[in-house]
Amino acid sequence: IGKKIKIGIDKIGFAMPKYFLDIRDLALGRNENENKFVKGLMQSEMSIAPVTEDIVSLGASAAEQILDEEDKKNIEMVIVGTESGIDQSKASAVFIHHLLGIQPFARCIEIKEACYGATAALSFAKNYIEKNENASVLVIASDIAKYGIDTPGESTQGAGSIAMLIKKDPKIAVINDENVCQTRDIMDFWRPNYSNFPIVDGHFSTKQYLDCLVTTFDEYKKRYNQDLCDFDGFCFHLPFPKLGLKAINSLLEKNVEKETKNKFLEKFHTSIIYGKRVGNIYTGSLYLSLLSLLENCDSLKAGDNIGMYSYGSGAVCEFFNLTLAEDFKNHLRHDRLNDFDNRKQLSINEYENLFFEKIILDNEGNCDFSNRKLIQESDNAFVLEKVENHKRIYKKIK
Ligand code: HMG
């Protein structure tokens, strides 16, 4: 029997738009007490995507930060997890493959199951590499969360993209074999094709998220004979950080010593630093909490196990775990908070104008953004420059 190879996350990149809204300004604009959003949801800011930044430009920009020419020669598959698709037929991964200049003999697809899509993508990537040891797979989680003006979900919007290079002997974290999934056919959050915004049963969705976590983790413990003490930290899908706090507390409920509780809670608060400033990025949200934990926590070390909870409405969830690689700290950024500080703050009026601007086509199916300030202001590598004859044209600007 051959030696089992270790497969996992070798590099992680993150891209977000240039603009953000302070959650207190949203509260003011909607006549809500700001503490409802700041304390009740534990949110501080939301990333706002202009019309010139979509899931393709954000996804390609996140990947461009991490890939070198050698990586681009070895990638055999690009998988994008998203629920903000730009086309019903053509996969966003095909555009991204072209923009990045990845070698041509690759497979490119898009996966959908609400916020769960990127976790399914990781699993497919791992299976592929088990059979093709020297290949790499690029997994991208890219989404723009929009609930609409003056809706209960408005305070939980966001935009951004995570890119992960998956290969053998990874430099950041090994994806272990143990995992448990659960599927429930429920209507907690969905977006019919005829609707621009999701339909949400908000409180029902939070109950389902928590109940799926507890029952899936119980099954995981039973199947693999593991317990809390087998983990050094947890990361959760974060539609808003307070739900993550409820999630960690629900795992810590039974007979856990104060010291252990504090250890997990301290790590949890490190895992929400980025999410608090970006909002919900659907498929990427769990991986943004992982990035936040790994880049900001001093007490994690090689060999530590991180429990990961992925939840997509509808609903499919998965509990799985990662083991941190030998030298993981040297393959991450430690100055990322500067990127958040360098964003441009929007007033509530600017937010409404920007966030709800649509592509408006002329009779020939054209729309040109090339002279817009939005393009010059972007810090990302790629933007949507125009639509020509119904075809999206992206531009490399950095
Ligand atoms: P709401 O119903 O307007 O808010 O919207 P609420 O009344 O439940 O208040 C929120 C919290 O603020 C509560 O805390 C209040 O007590 C507190 P809790 O009791 O739950 O701990 N609060 C205050 N705290 C301090 N000072 C105050 C104050 N006032 C109130 N003055 C809701 C909340 C989550 C329903 C809404 O934002 C929403 O619908 N969001 C979208 C749905 C969502 O995020 N669901 C999460 C689970 S489903 C999921 O994760 C999947 C998803 O990512 C999509 C996908 O899979 O694709 C969404």
TrEMBL record:
It holds the Pfam family HMG_CoA_synt_C. The keyword Methyltransferase does not apply. Signal peptide: none annotated. (3S)-3-hydroxy-3-methylglutaryl-CoA binds at Y147, K246, N280. Keywords: Acyltransferase, Transferase. GO terms for molecular function: hydroxymethylglutaryl-CoA synthase activity. It is an enzyme of class 2 (transferase). Residues 6-168 form the Hydroxymethylglutaryl-coenzyme A synthase N-terminal domain. GO terms for biological process: acetyl-CoA metabolic process. The keyword Flavoprotein does not apply. InterPro entries: HMG_CoA_synt_C_dom, HMG_CoA_synth_N, HMG_CoA_synthase_prok, Thiolase-like. Its EC number is 2.3.3.10. The active site is at E83, C115, H237. Residues 251-395 form the Hydroxymethylglutaryl-coenzyme A synthase C-terminal domain. Belongs to the thiolase-like superfamily. HMG-CoA synthase family. This is Hydroxymethylglutaryl-CoA synthase. It comes from Leptotrichia mesophila.
